[in-house]
């Protein structure tokens, strides 16, 4: 079984900005609490990804390459909820951080993720890392596709 163990943080500093980046477009064909089905175009590649329910920081994840033309057609089925972002890959203390700088209706939101071997793995945090939001469903990409950052009540962000 393929497992993804991931922790997610807000980004408060600028030290990641010069890391290599690629543009991603992704949409959700299925968005339910128990599972999501995502289509993503990353540069000249495309993927179909199925994710199970998150328990702690762990969930099942299955990802398959698909033709870019198929991904473009599938993204069209996702409607207005397609997410666009730049993903920067930043290496810090031997670990790769994926820093997503969102565009469109999620512009202004910057989130960093790290994949781990287990939930208790100790890792060094870069100085530009802010609050952990691993368990805050508002920051799940699937939720950002239907409830974009631009529409959030700024008072609710202080919660």
The count of β-strands is 9
The helix/strand series, from N terminus to C terminus, equals: EEEEEHEEEEHH
Radius of gyration: 15 Å
Helix tally? 3
Number of domains: 1
* Biggest sheet strand line-up: 1-5-4-3-2-6-7-8
Give the termini separation: 36 Å
Helix share, percent: 10-25%
- How confident overall, as mean pLDDT? 93
The CATH superfamily is identified as Hypothetical Protein Pfu-838710-001
Q: Main beta sheet, described?
A: 8 strands, antiparallel, barrel
The helix-and-strand class reads: mainly beta
Proportion of residues in extended strands: over 45%
- What is the name of the CATH class? Mainly Beta
CATH architecture: Beta Barrel
Shape: globular
Uncertain regions spanning at least 5 consecutive residues: none
The CATH topology label is: Hypothetical Protein Pfu-838710-001
Oligomer: single chain
Question: How would you describe what is shown here?
Answer:
The protein has 159 residues and is mainly beta. It has a single domain, classed as Hypothetical Protein Pfu-838710-001 (Beta Barrel), CATH 2.40.320. Helix content is 13%, strand content 47%. The model has no long low-confidence stretch (mean pLDDT 93).
Give me a quick take on this structure.
The chain has 3 helices and 9 strands. The protein has helices at residues 68-77, 141-146, 154-157; strands at residues 3-11, 21-32, 35-42, 45-52, 58-66, 83-92, 95-102, 110-115, 129-132.
């Amino acid at each position: 079984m393929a497992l993804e163990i991931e922790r997610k943080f807000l980004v408060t500093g600028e030290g990641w900005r010069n890391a290599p980046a690629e543009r991603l477009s992704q949409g959700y064909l299925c968005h339910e609490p128990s599972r999501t089905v995502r289509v993503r175009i990353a540069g000249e590649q495309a993927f179909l990804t199925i994710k199970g329910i998150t328990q702690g920081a762990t969930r099942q994840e299955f990802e398959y390459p698909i033709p870019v033309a198929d991904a473009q057609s599938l993204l069209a089925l996702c409607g207005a909820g397609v997410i666009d972002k730049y993903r920067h890959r930043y290496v810090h203390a031997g670990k790769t951080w994926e820093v997503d700088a969102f565009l469109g209706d999620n512009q202004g939101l910057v989130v960093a993720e790290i994949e781990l071997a287990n939930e208790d793995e100790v890792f060094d945090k870069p100085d530009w890392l802010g609050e952990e939001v691993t368990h805050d469903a508002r920051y799940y990409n699937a939720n950002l596709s239907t409830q974009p950052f631009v529409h959030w009540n700024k008072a609710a962000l202080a919660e």
